[in-house]
């Protein structure tokens, strides 16, 4: 009996230490353990508790590092998202600025029609294409005979409204006219421009003959002589339209303008 008791006192702590070692190996034990015993038992217990303490400290450090890493990732993601939004905003502002600058450079501020600069660039290109493809092109030059009198008598604001209405009627007539579609190639580019003052132009690309330009010009005149209601005044304007063909009358922009304005 006595020997059995001594054996149990020795083997029981060892068995418990074995279980503790298994739990430590499995990562299940986080707190130090207390095992009764002397000599080697205490030394083994101290070693195991040292291991448990080290593992606990390491795990705590790993948890903190993981949290810091997660915070850094979230912070970096937030920074990237914010910078991406700022970049998109900057790109949008640059694009809008470019559009505004192009609008100011190439379009008339009063009527929003192409201005003289854009008209010149477009017509130069069309003339080169027409020459290369052996095609005809017509320039219609339009001005308002009684515009100065209307402008002087009713004021510049009324004159501006009248010019806007002229631009609207010209654009609408060119866009919707069956006459234009009949006499000009359906794929041709047709542009109404305001050169300045009361001077407007219409370019008919890939036209078949001079008489066709005359038919279109008459259609434009008919649209413009209809009364216009400006600031409570019913006004009737008297437009004049000159016609020049390329390459018969001229083969450059200035030459066509001069031929159409005579």
Automatic annotation (TrEMBL):
Domain HAMP: 8-60
Entry GO terms, CC: membrane
Pfam families cross-referenced by the UniProt entry: GGDEF, HAMP
Alphabetical keyword list: Coiled coil
Gene Ontology biological-process annotations: signal transduction
Residue runs in coiled coils: 77-104
Keyword Coiled coil (UniProt): yes
PANTHER family in the cross-refs: DIGUANYLATE CYCLASE DGCT-RELATED (PTHR46663), GGDEF DOMAIN-CONTAINING PROTEIN (PTHR46663:SF2)
Name assigned to this protein: GGDEF domain-containing protein
Organism name: marine sediment metagenome
């Amino acid at each position: 009996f006595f020997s059995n008791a001594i054996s149990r006192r020795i083997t029981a702590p060892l068995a418990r230490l074995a279980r503790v070692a298994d739990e430590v190996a499995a990562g299940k034990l986080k707190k130090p353990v207390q095992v009764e015993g002397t000599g080697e038992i205490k030394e083994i217990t101290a070693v195991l508790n040292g291991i448990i303490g080290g593992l606990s400290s390491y795990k705590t450090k790993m948890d903190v590092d993981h949290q810091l890493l997660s915070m850094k990732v979230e912070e970096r993601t937030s920074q990237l998202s914010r910078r991406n939004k700022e970049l998109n905003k900057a790109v949008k502002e640059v694009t809008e600025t470019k559009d505004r600058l192009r609008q100011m450079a190439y379009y008339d501020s009063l009527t929003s029609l192409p201005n003289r600069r854009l008209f010149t660039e477009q017509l130069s290109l069309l003339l080169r294409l027409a020459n290369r493809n052996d095609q005809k092109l017509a320039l219609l030059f339009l001005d308002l005979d009684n515009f100065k009198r209307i402008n002087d008598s009713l004021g510049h604001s009324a004159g501006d409204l009248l010019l806007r209405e002229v631009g609207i009627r010209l654009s609408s007539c060119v866009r919707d006219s069956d006459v234009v579609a009949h006499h000009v190639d359906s794929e041709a580019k047709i542009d109404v421009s305001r050169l300045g003052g009361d001077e407007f132009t219409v370019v008919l690309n890939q036209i078949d003959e001079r008489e066709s330009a005359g038919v279109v010009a008459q259609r434009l005149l008919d649209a413009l002589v209809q009364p216009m209601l400006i600031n409570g005044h019913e006004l009737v304007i008297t437009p004049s339209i000159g016609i020049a063909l390329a390459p018969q009358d001229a083969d450059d922009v200035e030459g066509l303008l001069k031929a159409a304005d005579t």
